[in-house]
Amino acid sequence: MLFLATTAFAADAIDPAALKRLVQQDCGSCHGLTLKGGLGPDLRAEALQHYDQDVLTSVILDGIPDTAMPPWRPLMTEEEAEWIARYLQNPEGK
Fold it and tell me: What is the mean pLDDT of residues 51-74?
């Protein structure tokens, strides 16, 4: 899966289809394939509405120390992490 993640971000432009696949496959491996929660918490829009997008972006990029949430900063840009944060809060809007 790491290969999928790194190839999704090879270009400078944001690729929504690749980012959606990353959310479903890579995030889904811990947060559940339907994103309802698993090892990690629920990532559906209704569960994330009270979070600020900057906070979600930071968690995506830097992970959460002493938890299973890894930092994705080595594998994606800040713009890609911002896109994912927006997508998680509003999946129908992307």
Answer: 97
